[in-house]
Amino acid sequence: MGAAYFYHLTESPLERTLPMLLGKCREAGWRVAVRGRDAGLLERLDASLWKDGFMPHGMAGGAHDADQPVLLGTNVPAAEFQCVMSVAGADVSAAEVEAADRVCILFDGYDESALNHARGQWKALTTAGCKAQYWAQEDGRWLKKAES
């Protein structure tokens, strides 16, 4: 039984936060799906993960998807991964939260629509009985601000 961790990005951009979280997931031995709605954003993240501190990964749709420790895509099925990371408003279901060790929902704290979408996800997932934690940045550190 997993939990949804909400990361409210206010001090560090997605391009810095994602590699940090992926590193922690890989240290735990987890395969990670990074799910987004915008192929262009996923391509930028792909380039960043190769350039800024090598993180082995692949883009979904390749011949070696099953071998990738981290797989980025718009339609990555959660069933094969211990962790699912939602970026830029990609949806995750309560069933995916329950099946995974962890689901991470990263959202831009300066984008009102992203904030509203994350609030809606929190409400939907917690109403469905999923455990959830809300993490916010404060003075360069991540602090847990809420838990359900």
Strand proportion: 25-35%
What is the ordering of alpha helices and beta strands? EHEHEEEHEHEE
| Biggest β-sheet strands, sense, barrel | 8 strands, mixed
Q: What general form does the structure show?
A: globular
How far apart the termini lie comes to 14 Å
How are the secondary structure elements laid out?
Elements: E1 3-9, H1 14-27, E2 32-35, H2 39-51, E3 58-59, E4 70-73, E5 83-87, H3 94-99, E6 102-108, H4 112-127, E7 131-138, E8 141-147
Parallel strand pairs: 1-6, 1-7, 2-4, 2-5, 3-4, 5-6
Antiparallel strand pairs: 7-8
Q: Can you walk me through this structure?
A:
It is built from four helices and eight strands. The chain has an eight-stranded mixed β-sheet, sandwiched between helices. Helices cover 33% and strands 30% of the residues. By secondary structure, the protein is α/β, with parallel strands linked by helices.
